[in-house]
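In this section we walk through a basic example: taking a raw amino acid sequence and producing a predicted 3D structure, encoded as discrete structure tokens. The instruction is simple. Fold the sequence below.
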Amino acid sequence: MTGLVVDASLTAAWCFEDEETQYARDVLSRAENISFFVPAIWPVEMVNVLLVNERRKRITPADRARAITLFNELAIQVDRPQREYSSMLELASSPGEPEPIILVFSEGQQLTLSPETTKLIWEAVRAGRQPAHRNLSYGH
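The resulting token sequence is shown next.
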């Protein structure tokens, strides 16, 4: 089975029709043949997205429940941080070649992000930006 690293911006598009893109539809349509992996912050981000939008009357409690059901059915695997935050800040601020980023999941599975993706992420972190999900890929 193939794996794909996704983030809150992509998974939120599955919950809001006005944010849905062709890419989001394509990814979700492949759910039977793909494992989804998310960063450790993803559950907190999605709870926040759903609650804020419910409070703003953009979605109903039933919509929120459907989103949670979808996420549970997809069996999304959540990454767990492998470093202390201070060491991540030190790495992000150091010059030179970026260190490979390895995602470690509760099942013991590890995915190393491709060198291109690692470079994009570290460049974004060093510049104080959040990397875009569509640029992520992984290598073995």
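Looking at the output, two observations stand out. Confidence is low (pLDDT under 50) at residues 131-140. Residues 42-55 form the longest helix (14 residues). In the next section we compare this with other chains.
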